[in-house]
Structures are given as C-alpha cells and as structure tokens.
Amino acid sequence: MSAKSFWNDERDRKLRELHAQGLTGRKIGDQLGVSNVSVARRIKVLGLEPHIRLPPPVSKVAPVKGVEDAEPREAAPAAMKGGAHVRPYKRARRGFEVPAHLEDRYFELLKGGVPIAEACRQLGIIQNP
C-alpha cells in the first residue's frame, strides 16, 4: 500500500515559480505547507539547480580610538617559548614520550598501519617509564 504523493503538477509548477524567484527552501516550504527538506528533495528530483547560500559579508571594523597608544603586552614566559609547553601535553596524550627527533618516523610508521607497540619497539621508545 503506497501513500499518495503530495507532489502533483500544480504544486510542481508553484515550486518552480517560487524557486525561480530565488526563495529559500524554507520559504517555499512555508508557502506550500511542507518541510524545507521535502522541498530540497523535490528540487533535486525536478533537476533544478539548488540555490547556493553565500556567507554573510564581512564588515570592516573601524579602528578603535587610542588602541595604537595602548601599552604593549607582556612577552610570553620563557617556558612557553620554543614549544616547551607542548612536550608535557604530548606525553599526557600518549602516555609516553616520543623524542622530537623520532616523531616524524613514529607517525610514518603509524600511518603505515604499524601498531603503536611495534613502532615503539622499532624506534627504541620506552612506553611505560
């Protein structure tokens, strides 16, 4: 048993007309009494080009008065320079430390499908110090 389709020649004609006016699927659906998803599917079935939604234009922000006179920010602490803060993070994420000079090779092995334990064994990395 199949349900009778909502779409008929009259509704298709109205959809084509509203689509040609540039209305969104939601607005067309509101006028026809169906969901925007149903409208999008029908647009595809009828072979109409879907409307591409462009992102809103970026507005240029006017410079704030006095910003150029603001005091300079403090420099980052020495411990943060050179990526020193990354090392403990990587260790915490992996549970062990991969020396920097072996990282590229370690990732190549993993990408190649080598299990972590085998990659560590091949590179001489101790997983649980």
Task: Summarize, please.
With 129 residues, the chain is mainly alpha-helical. It has helices at 9-20, 25-32, 36-46, 86-94, 103-111, 116-123.
- Roughly how many Å is the radius of gyration? 30 Å
- In DSSP terms (H or I, runs of 4 or more residues), the helix count works out at 6
Total strand segments: 0
Overall structural class, as computed from helix and strand content, comes to: mainly alpha
N-to-C series of helices and strands: HHHHHH
Helicity, as a percent range: 40-55%
Distance between the termini: 67 Å
Low-confidence stretches: none
Task: Tell me what portion of residues adopts beta-strand conformation.
Answer: under 5%
Task: Describe the largest sheet.
Answer: none
The average pLDDT value, as a whole number, equals 77
Overall 3D geometry?
Answer: elongated
Task: Pick out its properties.
129 residues, mainly alpha, elongated
